[in-house]
Amino acid sequence: MKLNRKKTRKLLFQKLYAMSFWNFDDELFMESYYDDVFNFDMDKVYYKEMSELILKNEWFYLEVISKYAPKFELASMNIMYVLPIFIGLAEMFHLTEEIPAKVSINEAVEISKAFWDDSAKKIVNGVLNKVYENHDELKEVSKNPESTNDFSFFNL
After folding, report:
1. How far apart are CA 19 and CA 130, in angstroms?
2. Residue 38 in contact with residue 3, Cβ under 8 Å?
3. Would you say 77 and 69 are in contact if contact means Cβ atoms under 8 Å apart?
4. Count of CB atoms within 10 A of residue 9's CB?
5. What pTM, to 2 d.p., does this model score?
6. Which of 49, 45, 57, 121 is nearest to 86 (CA)?
7. pLDDT per position as a tens digit, 98-155
8. At 25, is the secondary structure helix, strand, or coil?
9. Which residues contact 100 (CB under 8 A, 6 or more apart)?
10. Residue 148 neighbours by CB distance under 10 Å
11. Helix (H, G, I), strand (E, B) or coil at 70
């Protein structure tokens, strides 16, 4: 069976969502949720790398959201807006494999549409397009982990 990156992104979103609520066990999640029941082969390399990148670079993603969605308080921002942005940013700045930024933006918007509403789609699209316009400037920031933020969405 062929790897399905689009469906793997959705599974990644669901994993990240689950991580925000309780002590997370990736093995148990995969066993109880995925367990090869679906009719696609998960891109396990992408899934593992993205999971690690998002946790490692959450500080940067939160800084970006603070900068490009200033009307939102991070602590009260709906996680359904945040997670697709995290996925898009991880692909745009940290993923080993090069994925065109416009593809990452479109896929993040698709995830937000699949799991939330039009407001999420607009916010995700707006933030990621601003990031795209300022990519070179942000690339430098992404290399220097100096966050003023001690907030996290994940319960680890």
Report:
1. 27
2. no
3. yes
4. 24
5. 0.82
6. 57
7. 999 999 999 999 999 998 888 889 999 999 999 999 998 888 878 776 656 677 777 6
8. coil
9. none
10. 8
11. coil
